[in-house]
Write a structure and sequence with these properties.
Fumarylacetoacetate hydrolase, domain 2; 96 residues; 1 helix; four-stranded antiparallel beta sheet; mainly beta
Length: 96
């Protein structure tokens, strides 16, 4: 267990993201890019991940499927600000 390690929300429908497989997603910490990637670079598409996971256990609306993370994972320090962007659009901000 890693307390506060899986920040989720607010909710949005992934189908509504512009160019969801082509757009770059990025995590910035205090304005500096820490992680970035493209869903198109995943071994399985998000839909294929859900389909594969559902062969092992039932999935219901609202369930979360974690698929991994791009390179750049590192510690954050109290007071730092994180910003998640998808295709340049800020989806979420957090301060530790």
């Amino acid at each position: 267990m890693f307390p506060s390690s899986a920040i989720v929300g607010p909710w949005f429908e992934s189908d509504r993201l512009p160019g969801q497989l082509e757009a770059q997603f990025e995590l910035l910490i205090d304005g500096a890019s820490r992680q970035r990637g493209h869903a198109s670079g995943m071994t399985l598409s998000p839909a294929e991940c859900v389909a594969y996971a559902s062969t092992f256990f039932p999935l219901c609306p609202g369930d979360l499927v974690f698929t991994g993370t791009p390179a750049g994972v590192g510690p954050v320090i109290r007071g730092q600000k994180g910003e998640i962007r998808w295709g340049g659009v800020v989806l979420f901000t957090v301060q530790w």
